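Exam review. A common question shows you a sequence with its structure tokens and asks you to describe the fold in words. Practice with the pair below. Do the first one on your own.
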Amino acid sequence: CQFEEAYNYSEELAVVKKDGKYGYINNIGKMATPFAFSGANSFHNGFAAVKLQGGWGIIDKTGRLRIPARFKAAGKFYGGEIEMEVASDMGPLFPAKGKLNTRSMLVLED
């Protein structure tokens, strides 16, 4: 088998695992991003949450990190927003939890 794990396509990209790392392939099986992530979620509205160097961040479809991987946990995108849990070392100005929208803005929970 070419991949250790493979998941359903979302926005013409699928999460796959190879040699212990996650990456994305396109709908013809070609690598779309490097296999550089220790965790990866499906794409929604052109963005996906990935785990890199112990933290979660957001990439675009080219694999470019759009939001630094500094979050403790990441949920799934719904309606253009994703729930992220802030790592404790980010300081008291950040809430413990919040939502990020696709414009990279932190939306505080009520």
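Now try the second one, then compare your answer with the model answer below.
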Amino acid sequence: SSIQRAIGEGAAVSIADGLAGARVRTLRFDPIRPTRLYAGTNDGLFLSQDRGTNWSRAGNALAGVDIVAVATDPRQASRLFAGGSDSGVWRSSDSGATWVRINDGLADLR
């Protein structure tokens, strides 16, 4: 299966080609910068600045982390949240360049 973006009447282009074989778990558009797209994968979080044409890793802290959820703060565009299947919740205050775990106070539900 692939993830595609419509480019015209009945035409589409794959946007997952640059994700190096990672399995995409979730996609999230930035509500303030609509050309920016985040892809949570089984190998971390990836960022596209051009609607999925090119991808780069959104910070090295999440490399190898199975990211199953991504959220953006509607009041502060540079603040992101990512949920890992086994690692809990992460927060970035600089558009994904650096990440910190914010699991304090959360119950271990395993």
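Model answer, second protein: The mean pLDDT is 84. The beta strands are 4-8, 11-14, 24-29, 37-41, 44-48, 56-57, 67-73, 76-84, 88-92, 100-101. Full marks require stating both points clearly.
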